[in-house]
Amino acid sequence: MEVLQKAYQQLITGIGLLLSSGREKAAREVNSILVQTYWQIGHYIVEYEQRGNEKAEYGSQLFDRLSKDLTAVHGKGFGRSNLFYMRKLYLSFQKSGTLSHKLTWSHYYEILKSDSDLEINFYAKQCEKEKWSVRELKRQMKSMLFHRLALSTDKEGVLKLASSGHEVQQPEDLLKDPFVLEFLNIPERDIYLEGELEEKLINNLQQFLLELGKGFAFIGRQYRMTIGGRHFKVDLLFYHRILKCFVLIDLKRGEIDHNDVGQMNLYLNYFKKEEATEGDNEPVGILLGAYKDHILVEYATAGITNKVLLAKYQLYLPDKVQLENALNKLLETE
Questions:
Q1: Ranges for the YhcG N-terminal domain (predicted)?
Q2: CA gap 65, 62 in Å, rounded
């Protein structure tokens, strides 16, 4: 009886796994067909407009009338904004083969809110690469991820971002300027300690990992090192599976100074000797502060062979207009 019960349980488990797999596959197929259908609807709308019908017959009321008539016949799903983004889907991806089978219409609906083709292409590529949920995508767009990454590169780098997404190939690719920690809900003018900032980051680790980007695996906080009989602790320790190295993060409530750079250099030397194992690349240190002085950074890091990266963080979402203006200025330069 015991053997029969075990076999029966295996049967139940096997059927359950098969059903789950089949349902997931069916959902992907339905989603892919839905996106392709909406793309085709967008194609029809654009063709209709290009023949001059929109101007001659309905003018600016095309979407209002189309929404009303389609809803009357086919039910929900044909609101004015939905139709507008179906049209934009076709205009942004004029080859249907460039559409991702991994993104839902809800993903595309958010992505198409972007103002430029560069942004649209970036978020589509990045969303597919990092398997963002719609909620995660909305957060990244709200924090102006594309602009923050773009402004840390040159014109050629911006175009590469748009065509292939953000690829982490070297330690410098880990940085954003700045990191945005608005999910901590700390008012900008509040007085807080570094320990409190660390505590809030740990309590919101999932969102912090999203902000850090793909490849980070959390190891621990206040990681202890004993060097020359003295004890030291690095605030946050990660391992980066793409770069294959430890990443040490120290948090600074105010401005990063030269002493912080020297201390991080000490930690990195320790990790190279004591923690790294065969196959690990050299560790990377990130000093994350509210401010950094570019001249001080230049002098403090000169001659250091270890990778000590300095980055700013801010507790509020960046100004969209300011970032857009800065990016446009970058793209205008030859």
A1: 18-148
A2: 5
Helical (H) or strand (E) element with 260: helix 258-270
Peptide bond preceding 187: is omega within 30 degrees of 0, i.e. cis? no
The two three-digit tokens of residue 93, written as one number: 């991806």
- Does residue 334 register a pLDDT over 60? no
CATH of domain 179-317: 3.40.1350.10
**On the CB side of 1, how many CA atoms lie within 13 Å of its CA?**
0
Q: Give pLDDT, residue 109.
A: 96
d(CA 179, CA 207): 12
| End-to-end Cα, the chain, rounded Å | 79
Supply 18's token pair.
Answer: 């098969």
* Domain spans in the chain, listed from the N-terminal domain onward: 2-91, 179-317
- Note the pLDDT tens digit of each residue in 45-86: 999 888 866 665 555 688 888 999 999 999 888 999 999 999
